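Hi R.,

Here are the chain sequences for the assembly we discussed:
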Amino acid sequence: MSTLSERILGGAAGEFVDREVDRAYAHDGTGVLTLEAWHAMGTNTVAFPERVYLLFDHIAPANNSTTAGLQAELRTFARSKGLHFCDVGSGICHQVMGEGSALPGEIIVGADSHTCTLGAFGAFATGVGATDMAAIWISGKSWFRVPETIAIHLEGNVRAPAEAKDLALAYVGRLGMDGATYRSIEFVGDGVAGLSMDSRQTVSNLAVETGAKTGLFYADEVTIQYLSESGQKTAIQHPEECRYEKEIGIDLDDIVPVVAVPPRVDSIKPAGDLLGLPLDQVFIGTCTNGRYEDLKRLAEILKGKRVRVRTVVAPASREVLLRAVGTGVIADIVQAGCVLLPPGCGPCLGAHMGVIGEGEICLSTANRNFRNRMGVGGEIYLCSVATAATSALAGELAVWEG
Amino acid sequence: MQIKGRAVCLGEDIDTDMIIAGRYLRTKDRRLWATHVFEDLDPALAGRLDGSVIVAGKNFGCGSSREQAPVALKEAGVQAVIAPSFARIFFRNSINVGLPVLEVRCECVEGEDVTVDLDGGEVQAGGRSYPIRPLSPRMLEILHAGGLVAYWRDKR
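And here is the predicted structure of the full complex:
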């Protein structure tokens, strides 16, 4: 009788275990230090190159010659070792992995904090740092402390104008920025079945904003169907009776559009309380909300209208972009006056493209609103795609009427 | 292992963007990170870190997995970080780069001498003593080796 984390890691909460990992990935940001640590460890081998992925998403394509040089080193390394390599334009690491390279029951580590996104597939997916990743390249293994689990019981259905992002922000607000530190979160209950895989990834993505190691959904019919589209055959995971450290309940029918007020992700207010907040930029994208469903929602709201504030849109992956091109979603977004960025993290971390200036306010669908993150002296309010789209049309914070 | 330093007091929920901003990450120049550490929190702080022990509030190091955060602290001369709790990736990263991190709620008096007895599991600050949550044997082994790189190099 175990939690999903206990079942996948094969130990009881509190135990330390050494485990082989099924997949390990790093990006152009964390890969640089990983490669440096790997060299310093005095080796020339990667234990399981077929399990190792390197994906360029953080500054993709490169913004200057320093970045380009660092990326060139990683590119050469990935090719010489026969790693899975996804160059600029492929998309955000978590999204690309989620397109058929993350399966229920796997142990997945990523050198990025939002690796917890892949918990949506019933994989124990967690973030590590660069040196841990280097040791994993060498050995194929890592140590884990089997986490205690907090269960979030979901009932009912998320109803427009709310969306999965509002649910995600709501639970972060309830748990707080350290409410699940060292723990795993499991999303369970009848409300799960109504959440698409895109929605589940949005919900899992924010788990780390509560300090959690991962945010897990049990694989069900929705998961199986989604993975079958990329040719993966997988089985359902059934929850067992188990001991949760803490349990909270959320009625999805009660979820309303909310905003996370800077500089804290857990500082949640109803979007309706901030109507009219002046905006300098709206940003739609990231590993939280750059998926096809998000772009489709954006296009539905923008179609035939014009945005009144600069609006930057970054699809989460090439696959998302291609699908959105095919269905006319991208045309609607571009015709509405949005700036389309290449697939990747875009301005989320303030590294390039869409950086904001002193005193500017950005309304963003991302996952972090820390001080100065998107640009020195700028402020970030986090919200859903519908709130971002409606606000882009209004030129100030506004709530979609559904 | 005994660690000594002057207390530098910090608040709660210090995130890794605050420790080292994203705009400084695209380099391998570790000194650059030490120069800009905590720049967005207090630009004067970097100059006061050499020989210090940071005593912070809960959830230190939350946010991104960037290992440049503990590396920047170490390069700036921070001897150890003490806080009631840490974000888990930052915690692991710190051990891996050889920066001791200790979980304990500790009253902080700016500039006071702080001593950490890593193996004895205790922090002493101005005559007060606090038991620390013990690190796992593996973490202690890594710290004693000077970090995970040295641990692996020794192993081979």
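Residues 35 and 134 of chain A are 7 Å apart (CA to CA). The interface with chain B takes residues 16, 29-30, 32-33, 36-37, 40-43, 59, 66-67, 70, 111-113, 127-132, 134-135, 138, 143, 145, 177-178, 181-182, 211, 213, 264, 349-351, 368, 370-373, 376 of chain A (CB under 8 Å).

Let me know if anything looks off.

Best,
T.
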